């Protein structure tokens, strides 16, 4: 069946956040004494949940993270996004030419998705069409986020195409019985 609806992941598909956010998390971890390069952070954390990231760093550190770690990380990340965030090249043209309904579904909090889409002038296309794992309390590779987004937008899994750049996102789409297009930056 030809897709009637598209779900976009956000980070890495619409906006190029992964390198920025993984660089910040790696730096914050190194400040605590954790051996973690920017490249390892990018390869390990792309598309995963914050709980996975923080658990990983705690295991390397050998103790709990400071209470303000997440708050500091988020603040620094947003500051870096304001300075450096770019849309994925060509995404504005793709979105403008789509003749199918679409939305965005991300493991990130909805306020972060909205903030990033506004920074790169994509928010008007996705206003009232943002779904977050935090809203359904289920993170990819769990399929709940994609299933919820499709249902709320009025489409069945068989009618839905997911565009994802992370292995966990692809796994979630497959688990949801949706078609999936793996997006890889060249």
Overview of the molecule:
By secondary structure, the chain is an alpha/beta fold. The protein is 51% helix and 11% strand. The protein has ten helices and five strands, in the order E-H-H-H-H-H-E-H-H-E-H-H-E-H-E. A five-stranded parallel β-sheet has the order 3-2-1-4-5, sandwiched between helices. The longest helix has 16 residues, at 69-84. It is globular and about 50 Å long. The mean pLDDT is 94.
List keywords for this structure.
186 residues, 5-stranded parallel beta sheet
Average pLDDT score = 94
Helix content range of the residues, please?
A: 40-55%
The N- and C-terminal alpha carbons lie at a distance of: 29 Å
Tell me the number of strands.
Answer: 5
Strand order of the largest sheet: 3-2-1-4-5
Unreliable stretches: none
Principal-axis shape:
globular
Task: Describe the sheet with the most strands.
Answer: 5 strands, parallel
Along the chain, the helix and strand elements come as EHHHHHEHHEHHEHE
Oligomer: single chain
Provide a brief overview of the structure.
The chain contains ten helices and five strands. It has about 190 residues and is of the alpha/beta class.
Write the topology of this structure.
Elements: E1 5-8, H1 18-31, H2 38-45, H3 50-61, H4 69-84, H5 91-97, E2 102-106, H6 110-119, H7 123-126, E3 130-132, H8 133-136, H9 144-153, E4 160-164, H10 167-175, E5 179-182
Helix pairs in contact: 1-2, 1-4
